[in-house]
Amino acid sequence: MKSLFIIVLNIFVVIFLMACNSSNSKRLEQALLFAGDNRGELEKVLTHYKNNPEKLEAARFLICNMPRWYGYEGWQLDSIKPVLIQKNKGEIVPKEVIEKWQRVSFYSLPKVYDAKVITADYLIENIDLAFDVWKRYPWNRSLGFDDFCELILPYRIGDEPLSSWRKLYHDHYTAILDSAYRGNDVIEACKAVDKELKRVYYRWDTDLNIPHQRADFLFYYRVGFCREACDVTLYAMRACGIPVACEHFVYSPEYQHPHFWTTLRDTTGKFIQFGFNEFEASRINPGSDGRKRGKVYRYCFGVQEEPFSGITKDEKVPALFRNRFIKDVTANYYGENKVSIPVQSGSEEYVYLGVFSPGGWIPVDMTHSNKGNATFRNLEPNIIYQPLISDGQNHRAAGYPFIYMREGISVLKPDTSHLKKAVIKRKMSLCSGYKNFPHRGIIGSRIEASLNRDFSNADLLYQFNDTLRTNYCELTPPDKNKKYRYIRFLSPPDNILELAEFTVFENSTHGESIKLNRIGDYPWPSSKLDNITDGDILSYFYTGDTSCFVAYDLGKVTPIRKIVFSPRNDDNYIWPGDEYELFYQDGINGWKSLGIQTATRRELEYRVPDNALLWLRNRTKGREEQVFIYKEGRQCFTVDI
């Protein structure tokens, strides 16, 4: 009986392997057919490795997945380079030039599919160099073939034009690595390359919406946003045989953007977040940028299994979930969990999970509907989520929003029979770097005035000792009748100088402000210093220098009865004169208005349902808005949960 079982088991294994090989062979043939006239180049690669089974399998992996990959072509991609180089040098690009390129639709340019143009020499060089570093470095002894194929082998990252990058990065970074570290710890190897990446300044820029930049261009010009920072890191690390991936969230639960970051596969199999522009990889103290994510996905070169059978071709499913080249890795960050919620729309096949955006909920996860309930897996806790139904393009509420916490869920079903007063001061969460603005460069700063240009015998008009509660401060000097000719703003001791607006008035109740004429020599551009007095609360002056000040001539000897001051800020506080509308979420009924108000002060008062999810819209200006609950007398955004 035991022998019979073994025979049956062996037959099953053989059949399974034949099915797998048959499936892979079919995909390979489909890729070769897709290549058209370029089929011969791909076949040269397969022939080249016919006596090397491992490299042959790697070549098959790349070719099988190649029909999905492409770059763009067009004169626009070359013409934008001088602008990027100018930005990389820190030079100011005229506003009209930026606006011109913002009108260009780069993603409508012709696509060039790899399979139709790639050469055998290009692929062979990439495969050979990738194998060389995989086999050469001792930290890869535990790195299996499948992980090698995803984390070191790929010849491209996104939709960038193809370039001969592997040898360029290999020759530079392996020389640095070999001279800096000769051990077997992948963490230390990563740090050595990371240190070299930090040596070249990265210029952050979000003005332009363009495809991924060429790998060889990024080698020389480090400019872009978090995506390009990830790209250059992947190129450098993979060229050195360090297994890395790029992960992202689709849309932030706390602000209005996606975000990308790099992760390192440790020898334990665990993925550790790092970034040369953020923090080093560490087992003992794993880093995090502190952003809330909701759901996390990893970009893959190879096709991934469908989470639900048949959804790839189902256009009623949002595009995110039809993408077979991403992988849900949320459990790596928050562990495995299961969240079951009631839904009001029980007839749909799928229910989606959304995070808020002012333009509508953004789906970040999906599951099967189960007769009025939906169960999602592996969510980040302490996030406001919304169940949705979708036709692939339009997403509608399928039930009440909820907050998932480790101890359970809190369904935000509004109780309209119980209304409470809510005092509202912001329309957007104070998140990430914005949290620092009300005190960074503010606490300890001083305003002084004098009759003397050298500020001898200066009087202290005001000193900032606490975190500011608003972005608009009206300050009253201790002696409103004393006269001065000069005034200055001083940074805190051994801290930065950072401010948005500084205005001085002779009259405390009305009248024009006193014209401020800047005096003294400064190492900073005048255009940046002018931001302090341009009347624009969003423009600002910043310097990393410490113990600095900016001084002004008032043009005459005059009393100073009022000073208006604004720190660097996001202008998402309530602004007098702007028109606002407050909504609450009412399940499948959508958003319900609680009324429109024109602000007369720097706060609004509403009567709101208990246990409601709220959304304040500025109908006058701005686009940054985020949902919140009102709890214990204050607004609580996702970042506050």
From TrEMBL:
InterPro entries per the UniProt record, alphabetical: Papain-like_cys_pep_sf
PANTHER family for this protein: CARBOHYDRATE-BINDING DOMAIN-CONTAINING PROTEIN (PTHR35532:SF5), SIMILAR TO POLYHYDROXYALKANOATE DEPOLYMERASE (PTHR35532)
Name of the protein described by the UniProt record: Peptide-N(4)-(N-acetyl-beta-glucosaminyl)asparagine amidase
Species in which this protein is naturally found: bioreactor metagenome
